[in-house]
Each structure stands twice: as C-alpha cells, then as structure tokens.
Design brief:
Blueprint (H helix, E strand, L loop, with lengths): L6 E3 L6 E5 L14 E5 L9 E7 L5 H6 L5 E13 L5 E8 L2 E7 L3 E12 L9 H14 L21 H15 L1
Antiparallel strand pairs: 1-2, 2-3, 3-8, 4-5, 4-8, 5-6, 6-7
Length: 181
Amino acid sequence: MADNFTQSAAANVDGTYQIFAVGRCMGDLVPENTTLQADATADIHPGQIVSVVLDAGGPFRELSGMLDTHSCLGVIKLYLGKTQTTAGEEVFLLGQLNPPLVFAVPMASLLAMHRIVARVCEAPQPEDGTEDAKAVLNAQLDLMSPFLCESEAAAPVGSDWRPVDLDALIRSLQTLEQVDA
C-alpha cells in the first residue's frame, strides 16, 4: 500500500539523499526496490514524484497502524498540487497509482516532502513490459489528471529531515560492541 523508505547512503552536502522504495503503490512508475534520489532543497511542481513523511497522528493515525514505520509514515507519492478545504486550510494533494487514490494532506500532518530528482538504481523488472503494462500505467496516470492542480511550485517541507542512515547506525552499534568487549 505505501512505500516505506530508509536511507541507503549518507546525505550529500547539496541536500540530496538516497531512499529505497518498497511497495507497489506507485505501480510501474516507481517499481518496487528502486533506489531514488530525493532533494530536500528543490521546489516541487504538480506532476512530480515526491518522498513524503507523514506524522503518524492526526488524520493519518489509522494508516500508521497498517504500516511498521516507527511513529512516522514514509511514502513515495505523486504531487498533484495545493488547494484549500472549505474551511480555508491549505492542503497538498498527493496521489498513488496502485490502487488509484488521492490524499488531501494538511501541512500540519507533513514532517517532510522532498522532490525525487533521480533514479539511482532500479531493481530488475519482470519481462512483462508489454503493451498491457504500459496501458495500465497510462490509465492509472489518467485517473490522477482530474486532481492535478494548476498551482505554483511548493517549497520543500522539512528541509532538515533525513531518513535514518541504517549503515551508520549499524557501524555505531558495532563500534560500541567492540568498546564493551
């Protein structure tokens, strides 16, 4: 349902970091097990892919029970733009392709939203890159089109946020174990 992510390499000084997408919620647009590069400083335009970290409380608390995310929800989504609720609250529209869904995410629920700027490594895909698979992807993307907003670029949210660097954490634990030995 969602693409959880962890950092696969240390953050670069230019504001980019790598994330590993797990799950099929973006269909063939972001294949499972793809390593992506996110930029915490780049503006985000409607139609671009983003990494999103949602606060596990508030409107998304039920979703957090479905995912093992250690108090935050990390996902890969399609940024559709900004709009307002009837009460005047600004929300970001985020889409996923499999199944096709649109989420209205208030700013208060976002810990981070960073633009995906590159695919670093893509897992081998099945040989079924057929016309049927392309037709399904095109149909999924078309279902997002009514929600694509003509809005200005959004500034990244949580530009200081980075995923946990698991490799560094493991190295630190190994160092502590050596000191204790």
